[in-house]
Amino acid sequence: MTKRLTKIAATLLAGTAAALFAAPALAQSATAPLRPDQADFRALYKELVETNTTVSAGSCTLAAERMGARLKAAGIPDSAITYYATAEHPKDGGLVAVFPGTSKTLKPMLLLAHIDVVEAKRSDWTRDPFTLIEENGYFYARGTEDDKAQAAVWTDMLIRFAREGYKPKRTIKLALTCGEETAGAFNGAEWLANNKRDLIDAQFALNEGGGGRSDGHGKVMVQTVQVGEKAYQDYTLTVTNPGGHSSQPVRENAIYAMSDALLKIRDFEFPLEFNDTTKAYFAKAGAIRHDAIGDAMVALAANPDDKAAEAKVNTDKMLHSMLRTSCVGTLIEGGHALNALPQSVTANVNCRMFPGHTKEETQAMLEKAIGNPAIKLDPRKKDKPIAKVPPLDPAIVGPMEKLSAKWFPGVPMIPTMSTGATDAVYLGAVGIPTYGAPGIWDDPDFNGIHGLNERMEVKSLYTGRDYLYDLVKDLASK
User: Fold this and answer.
1) Does one domain contain both 328 and 358?
2) Residue 304 and residue 278 share a domain
3) Residue 179 and residue 474: Cα distance in Å, rounded?
4) By Cβ atoms counted within 10 A, which residue in 127, 167, 302, 385 is the most buried?
5) Which CATH number belongs to the domain containing residue 298 in this structure?
């Protein structure tokens, strides 16, 4: 849904880190001949991208079957591939593949990626959104970035391992899932966590959400690993009253009451909070910036009670959101006639809850801020798990940093927490700590993700693929 909001954090460094840390990526040239393994990967990526997986007209089930066929052709047996779908959602299926390790004591690792994509209308796009087009050093199509790049990399990785005869110590699992991009749709990661926990059991998982940021001209300025995220929750606000004829207005008006409530939410500030990830991010990213906000970030990480530093940091909307739960009105509907007093008004308030907080806690704080018992609040998703921040485990983050120095010399790697949401929340809820992996990078404009003419830099994809290949081998060898 909003997974690349993690990478927005990296943009804070764009203006100051470029001169200090920018280095040419050790990447495949857009015009150089592809290695045989890259040519095979490109064909897989093309097939996945060109398989429509929108919730309205596509099929994740078909995309999973096509990826499964490629895994099987590489020598991975049928017994190691599990397809899943429900009778109620036959097109929202996915797969889990298991690549066995040699160790009897090491727990598996899980590679997670969603294969559904945001809607895309051909009439809106410059190019056909479901035809992979390589042009001027970029791949264009819906899903080239979010999240079929990572899904293709993970799938291709198991294929490479099988062809090489690679025998990891740690079992490697792959889960391709559907439903991440559409709130309220069938979510494969949630379903697996709740119904097939043993199938995806792992010591940790690698997911979307991390990655790098370039200057838009081929230089990578920063790499990030996502270590935690907020939890997404919508609340429906409802107010009703008797209504009546508009020629005889009264103060008791549902539209006015809802307006007052939304303005109070606008003005309400959830308290500042830090966790290990955000404290590390503020200290490290702030030190790199060399500007007034950077100084305030460092000061606030050292002393969360520094009100002057907080005020300065709060001028940046992303930093403001990273420090607290945030809620905002997004939809409103009410009234039934032009010449009548409204009988009912509803509004949607979208919240991104700081890790560790429940929907009940957040609802109680909103109700207190509104201060009007006539406004009824109801969470749209009743069983949303609490967001949990995984530990900054050096056994996981350490190899990421080591390999980042190899592939992106001179480029800092910083832990960050997403202000958006990914499927990691469902794995964390069942005890699988999940990290957004570094590697693939975006331009400063986020490559049209969720919008028009989505694109992926060719160099980014091939270099990120090589980085992730090395990373998974490293993590699976220990």
Assistant:
1) yes
2) yes
3) 30
4) 385
5) 3.30.70.360
Q: Are residues 178 and 96 in the same domain?
A: yes
Q: Which domain holds residue 300?
A: 231-379
Number of domains, the chain: 2
Domain CATH code at residue 409: 3.40.630.10
The answer on 139 and 98 residing in a single domain is yes
Q: What is the pLDDT of residues 387-409, one digit of tens each?
A: 999 999 999 999 999 999 999 99
Average pLDDT of span 302-312: 98
Residues 121 and 223 occupy one common structural domain: yes
- What is the residue whose two structure tokens read 């400063």? 444
For residues 304 and 366, is the Cβ–Cβ distance under 8 A? no
- The SS3 of residue 456 is strand
Q: Find where tokens 């693939």 sit.
A: 440
Is the distance from CB of 415 to CB of 224 less than 8 angstroms? yes
Alpha carbon distances (Å) from 368 to 150, 272, 364: 42, 18, 6
Write down which residue in 352, 379, 406 finishes a domain. Answer: 379
Selection from 146, 198, 154 nearest residue 172 by Cα: 154
Core vs surface per residue 6-29: b (16+ CB within 10 A) or e: bbbbbbbbbebbeeebbeebebbe
pTM: predicted TM-score of the whole model, two decimal places: 0.90
> Within this chain, do residues 213 and 319 fall inside the same structural domain, yes or no?
no
Query: 147: cis peptide before it, omega within 30°?
Result: yes
Q: For the residues 329-347, what does the mean pLDDT come to? A: 97
| Residue that is last in its domain, among 324, 344, 379 | 379
pLDDT at residue 184 in the model: 78
Measured in Å, how far apart are the chain's first and last C-alpha atoms? Answer: 33
Residue 197 tokens, joined: 């926990």
Structure tokens at 63: 């995309």
What single string gives the DSSP state of each residue in 134-200?
EETTEEESTTTTTTHHHHHHHHHHHHHHHHHT---SS-EEEEEE--TTSTTS--HHHHHHHH-TTTT
Residue 150: pLDDT band (50, 70, 90) is: very high
Ramachandran bin of 20, using left for φ above 0, alpha for ψ from -120 to 50, beta for the remaining angles: alpha
pLDDT tens-digit map of 197-255: 999 999 999 999 999 999 998 899 999 999 999 999 999 999 999 999 999 999 999 99
What span, in angstroms and rounded, lies between the C-alpha atoms of 461 and 464? 5
